Amino acid sequence: MIRCDELYVRSWRGTGGTWWKTAQATHTGHIAAGGVEADVTFAPVGDPAVNDRVDAAYQTEYGHYSGYVEPMVGEQARATTLRLAPRS
What we know:
By secondary structure, this protein is of the alpha+beta class. It has one domain. It has four helices and four strands, in the order βαββαααβ. It has helices at residues 18-26, 48-62, 66-72, 75-78, and strands at 7-9, 28-33, 36-44, 82-86. The protein has a four-stranded antiparallel β-sheet with strand order 1-4-3-2, with helices on one face. Helix 2 (48-62) runs antiparallel to helix 3.
């Protein structure tokens, strides 16, 4: 089960996405969302079950946007799923 304090990101452009390439090269980044900013470490996700749960979360949250969800749950995006962890 995905815990509510775990964060995941994907590149809808797949491995061709610029930010994803940088995240893969450095494994570090800075995020800003919902008024919160944090330095993070990016960790690859190799567990298909995690990808399935991330897919379900995208479908639940954004399913009413028909053109948005399909690319985010496709194989190209699934291959780029990264877990974000706070960096100290």
